[in-house]
Amino acid sequence: MALTIFILQLAVYILAFPIYLLNFLGLWNRICKIWFPHFLERFAVMYNEQMASKKRELFSNLQEFVGSSGKLSLLEVGCGTGANFKYYPPGCRVTCIDPNPNFEKFLIKSVAENRHVQFERFVVAAGENMHQVADGSVDAVVCTLVLCSVENQEQILQEVCRVLRPGGAFYFMEHVAAERSTWNYFWQQVLHPVWYLVFDGCTLTRETWKALERANFSKLKLQHLQAPLSWELLRPHIYGYAVK
Ligand SMILES: C[S@@+](CC[C@H](N)C(=O)[O-])C[C@H]1O[C@@H](n2cnc3c(N)ncnc32)[C@H](O)[C@@H]1O
Description:
Elements: H1 2-15, H2 17-24, H3 28-50, H4 52-59, E1 73-77, E2 93-98, H5 104-113, E3 118-124, E4 138-144, H6 153-163, E5 164-175, H7 183-198, H8 208-214, E6 219-226, E7 236-243
Parallel strand pairs: 1-2, 1-4, 2-3, 4-5
Antiparallel strand pairs: 5-7, 6-7
Bound molecules: S-adenosylmethionine.
């Protein structure tokens, strides 16, 4: 099986040779950082349509975590184009973090379309180091389709715990590795190297639930789901929330 995967990976490498060449020349990362937000703007519309009921379910109890200020203070890590804004409760104060500055103009558009949220600021930073956000300062942190792309899941989850107030919640919805005995897992492995390059560091084969189970939350509500998505490779999902 390992040999078959290797041979198929080689075939995919050959097909994607121009991208590997650009990467070798040090040009691909810059192109990707510009291209990816445009791709994500369209992808997020499709994803939100197909996952609408699950997203509504996920965010349905956000209000329970409103702190002493009376307004939910929410930090979205890896916010992308701001595709989650429409699921946030009215008056929710939102800070966004993303390492790619090219998302800002898409975020501004999303803010204009979602007047019910109170947008505070956009911080250009990776979730592994969110020193711009004070300890215990937010009621909720949200990550959707982000933990597949980050360099260090453990470090991000530590940072999430640091910025959350005691009793605050971390909401997640992530695509993950398929079950190992399935064809889906086979194709995830074959396509992983090229997928990673094309989709800005997205890893198809992460068992993200393990990092969440290891993290220091007092309560974890995590469900596995075969998401009703047309992109088969992304169907295995986890979603839920964890309380600090
Ligand atoms: C697939 S997009 C998802 C965007 C958005 N959360 C959504 O659901 O539409 C992944 C996002 O994670 C961001 N990202 C990548 N590495 C990151 C990191 N280390 N910390 C925070 N965000 C990261 C990317 O720039 C991108 O905006």
